[in-house]
Amino acid sequence: MKKFFLGFILMMSVMSIPFAQAASFKVGDIDWSLAGSLRLDTGWRSTDFGDKPKTGEASTQQRYFLENPGDSRISTKAQYDKLSGFAELGFKTDNSGNGGNNDNRVNVRQAYFTYDFGGGKNLLLGRTYTILAEDSPVQYMWQDDCLQFFGDLYAGRGEQIQYSYAADKMTLKVAIEANKVESNSGGKIFDLDASKYIIRDITPGLLASFSFSDFGFTVTPSAFIQKYELKSNASSVKDIDVLSYAGGLDASYKTNILAVSGELWYGQNIYFFGLDGRINSSDIMGKPIKNDKGDDLKNVKSMGGWLQCALTIDPFVLRIGGGYQQADTEKTGARDENKISTWGTFINLDYSIAKGFIVAPEIAYFDYGKDTNKDLFDTNKNKLGSETFVGLHFQYDF
Q1: Residue 315: cis peptide before it, omega within 30 degrees of 0
Q2: 280-293: pLDDT as tens digits
Q3: Continuous segment of H or E residues that includes residue 13
Q4: φ and ψ of 159, to 5 deg
Q5: pLDDT computed for residue 288 by the predictor
Q6: Cα(245)–Cα(256) distance, rounded to whole angstroms?
Q7: Cα dihedral sign for 213, 204, 115, 129?
């Protein structure tokens, strides 16, 4: 906890230097700007462990938390003629009071160059947000996860080459991104014997999105696909293609007072997009599994979505939203669930205290659903429990 407050004081000191809000200045022929965001969550967290507790153990746990949710950041941008560069560092501080990783670190959230060809055409090289299902609800508690694991398909940030074209009411983006590959873990790859396979023919991920806006409406379909091969290294097994794909549809309608937004998505083998945040689970949502013979993979389908409504009456913004997602398990045993799911809901209220500074009380509930194994904790006991958060989110953007 001491390290947490040292980190918090350090970030407050950074923000107190005299470039309140964003700072812009010029060095030679280069235009520079500095910006950032400090975020802090505090409140009460109640965990229901579902069917896990055994005799003598508590079925629930309540605790107070005070944490940097992990997405506080500072960024800088440099612009020279048609070339620009952007870098953003994230600050993670000790999270031991909330069962976190007990670490303090600085991480690179984004770092990229762009070149403006004119006429709405731009080329980006570097690390930034993946263009699949880019929108997210504004949900704060539990490390600002925005319903990730509970309906929001958050594809994160990755190294990529991205081309975009904007004209009038539409924007087209296409990208080639670093492939996401399952690594050897304990001598296993997807529960297959790793010694019998070599990962090869890794193709980059291909992505595309198209956004159209008019009369307050915005609609953005997007898609992703990638493939690699588990090449046989033994006569007893065959080559296996690991194919992943996903499609998403984001849509919103906004006026000065009312905003409604949402997302629907569907995909195959997309566990690496953070589909699984369940506690005590024996498997991972959206992850392919080996077949009964142990010489091939069963592809796993997943789907989900979220919906959010926001009402703005200055200086307040009231939001209510929820999300749901489910995945096939491809397991057919009598003691197996063939589908697993999670869902979450929240309500929060932004109150703008000063320029760039908001305080937001929030109530959020997350249900982890059931485990694939119907007998995980005992006969017919596989409920993974739920969590409830009641807290305050503090955010200062400069």
Answers
A1: yes
A2: 899 899 999 999 88
A3: helix 2-16
A4: -75, 135
A5: 95
A6: 36
A7: positive
DSSP for 170-235, please give it: EEEEEEEEPPP-PPPBTTEETTEEGGGEEEE--PPEEEEEEEEEETTEEEEEEEEEEEEEEEE-ST
pTM, 2 dp: 0.90
Mean pLDDT value of segment 67-91: 94
Q: Judging by DSSP bridges, how do beta strands 157-167 and 121-129 pair with one another?
A: antiparallel
CA distances from 346 to 15, 262, 283 (A): 30, 14, 26
Q: CA-CA distance, 149 to 140, in Å (whole number)?
A: 14
Question: How does pLDDT run across 107-137, given as a tens digit for each residue?
Answer: 899 999 999 999 999 999 999 999 999 999 9
- β-strands 188-189, 339-354: how paired? unpaired
pLDDT for the residue numbered 103: 55
Tokens of 122: 């731009």
Mean pLDDT of the 389-397 span = 97
CA–CA distances in Å: residue 126 to residues 71, 97, 164: 20, 35, 14
Q: How many helices (H) and strands (E) does the chain have?
A: 2, 23
* pLDDT tens digits, one per residue of 297-341: 999 999 999 999 999 999 999 999 999 999 999 998 999 999 999
Listed in sequence order, the residues at least 6 apart from 57 whose beta carbon sits closer than 8 Å to its beta carbon are: none
Dihedral of the CA atoms 371, 373, 374, 376 (nearest 10)? -90
